[in-house]
Amino acid sequence: MVHDPAQAKRLLRQRLRQQRRLLNLTQQAAAAQALAAYAPLLRRYRRIAAYLPSDGEIDPQRLLQRLQRRAYLPCLQGQSLCFRISGSALKEHRLGVQQPARGRPYALWQLDAVLLPLVAFDRQGHRLGRGGGYYDRAIAELDRRPRRPRLIGLAHHFQGLQQLPTEAWDQALDALICDRYARFFTKKS
């Protein structure tokens, strides 16, 4: 048993990312199709941020097609995260992330819902990301903003764990949608 949260997170990331990568194209397509069935849960949101899947992440594109929405995609600018409407040419960021090459940048607080990629989630709504902290830093800024989007994690069902190791800066989800179920979380004050 690992007692250091940072080391425990590293080991979880390694194991679950490898498990995602083992999914073949048929399994990935089936998971994306199953995810799309939850589109009615998101109909009330107009400006939705999503992501381009990589490293075995569940693909949100069919879900967005069913909603008939264009996504706002994440763009890394230094250590900050902004979003641009999909549709423009893509460029690769230094971290290997595909992002819109141009377009007006939007801050997280200007969106209605954010579909977040994740490596793992737990029953309390904690999310384990890739480890760069881009989303956590952007979410932490929301306390100083006039509004807050709904934070909705997307994942394969096997990425769910009983409990994740957490640290003070980790940001919890409002909801989670995976290929087998959706779950909503109550925020603790």
Describe the protein's architecture and organization.
This protein has helices at 5-21, 25-36, 61-67, 134-140; strands spanning 48-49, 72-77, 80-85, 90-92, 98-100, 113-116, 120-122, 127-128, 150-155, 160-161, 175-178, 182-184. With 189 residues, it is of the alpha/beta class. It has a single domain (5-181), classed as NagB/RpiA/CoA transferase-like (Rossmann fold, 3-Layer(aba) Sandwich). Strand 11 (175-178) and strand 12 form a beta hairpin. The longest helix has 17 residues, at 5-21.
Supply the key terms.
single chain; 189 residues; alpha/beta; Rossmann fold; 5-stranded mixed sheet; 3-stranded mixed sheet; 23% helix
